[in-house]
Amino acid sequence: MRDARDYSGEAGPRKCVLERFPIIWNHVIEKESLNINTVEHVLIEKVDQLFRDMLW
Predict the structure, then answer these.
(1) Predicted model pTM
(2) What would the DSSP string read from start to end of 13-40?
């Protein structure tokens, strides 16, 4: 037997079922984005330091 969410008001399965993502999913995305930004800043600083060292 199918879940009640599989059916719309018509006789047959829904063509498009939109469900919300849990809040945890959004938190994971934000955390990953923060990690990427942190790595990006570290890499920029390292490259900047490398170029400064080359000038001396």
Answers:
(1) 0.48
(2) B-S----PPPHHHHHHHHHHHHHHHHHH
